[in-house]
Description:
Layout: H1 5-14, E1 22-25, E2 28-30, E3 35-40, E4 46-52, E5 55-60, H2 72-82
Antiparallel strand pairs: 1-2, 3-4, 4-5
Amino acid sequence: xxxxxxxxxxxxxxxxxxxxxxxxxxxxxxxxxxxxxxxxxxxxxxxxxxxxxxxxxxxxxxxxxxxxxxxxxxxxxxxxxxx
Length: 83
């Protein structure tokens, strides 16, 4: 268990995390879904963790953003270029 974002990042880097298949319905499994997670602690420290192409990518101090289908860098580029 982690009480802070820093503790959570230490745990994430300590273990090998892998993408796996997800059960959808009727014996159908979906695999290789890009996974994007944001964590934030009560002090406001945040991080985005992405699992893309078999790699764990961590963006520490990631501001107020949560990625969905696109990766974090693409999202930042799209937001800042469009404004």
